[in-house]
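Section 5.1 Outputs to date
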Amino acid sequence: MSPRAGQSGPPARTLAFVESPVQLLNVLEWAHLHAGRIAAGAQEAPGAPDAEGAQGAGTGGADRAAAARAGGSDPATALLPGQAAVPVPAPPAPAALGAVPPQSRRAAVRRALGRRAPGDRAPAAGADLTVVVLAPTDPMTRGQLRRMADLAREDGHRVRWEEARGGASAPFQTIGGLAGVLRRADRIVMGDPFSRYVQLLLTITRAKDLVVVDDGTATMEFVAQLARGERLVRWHRKGGRPGARDLLFAPVSSSARRRLTPNARRRVEVFSSMPVSEIPDGVTVTANGFAWTRARFGPPTVTAGADMVGTSLVETGVVDGERYLEAVRALAKAHGATRYFAHRREHPDKLRRLAAETGLEIVRPELPLELIARRGPVGRTILSFPSTVVHTLPLALAGTGVRVAVCDIDPAWLTDTASPRAQGFLSGVTGTARDVHRLAAVSLA
């Protein structure tokens, strides 16, 4: 893939900046729900070739809603507290597909509704959404991002891959190359408002419509900080003394916070599956029910066993590594877990120890876990520590019979350098999760 893949064509009305596969997943979920609004803008511009030279497909508003509602009423689309519904017009029903095999049926539904199936040629209308990948250096994250980028292209969106961290001059080249399209964009969608890259790009844009999509549990903290007028800082770093780089970057961060505060000239939307308790004045909060994921994949085959979801709390310095290893061992033994789905940021040495000392099969997913679980096969019980998946998996797996169980973090597992807010934040992540079974912290003998 070329560094500027998908760059050609007319200026995009909507630019999305992502740095992780989860962020890109949630951009696609947002685009699925808001397809009618995006398609309206796309009709004003001629078709544009994507990276492979094909014409980009318009997203088409009604078709996404039909696929999401194909099975009738869906509990996963219920609103969270403080979230507002965004109406999507209902399309005509597709032709009856009777006794067609499931995979063929899904492809036929996509074609009947005007959507692209894998291998189809794209229609002439240009996609209005361009996804800009600010590529990280971690190989696992890059691999997942490339696969998610392929899914975005299949949905007709343009993808622009930026080697934003490819050397000392890369940031200057990236920002310089994006300045023009940033100034012309009407809408900016971002996956990580805490990112210094994103904050810097926000100082350039003139967009009147800003959207923050989920970047996991960090979204909860972002909304709360915005409501309280605090500086934007990640929850696991909060409480520490700002470093030299923080002080140097403070004016940019302050500018980004002001731009993310709605006013008479600027609209701000938060698209989230996370519980939001403090909603800033003027901010629109929209529920992410993972309708795109459920329409695109599954339902999965459900096995009788249990799977475990890994976390990067050790890598971020919150949880002690030895304590985490003991907790995984005890939890797997108590519930008969056989597979461990590693977080993309978990260190290989840690994973090798887990495999050797617990007997768990370590799985490095090629896509975000919500998609992997939805594709299946997946255990009837999914075990997790406090993390984003305790909120997202029940939505992605709605109606499948899979149970998500979350194990609390014992305060004794925290490191001496963990943020003073760590325990309260992690407890809040667990306590606010819906449709999960809550487990007590495992006893470490």
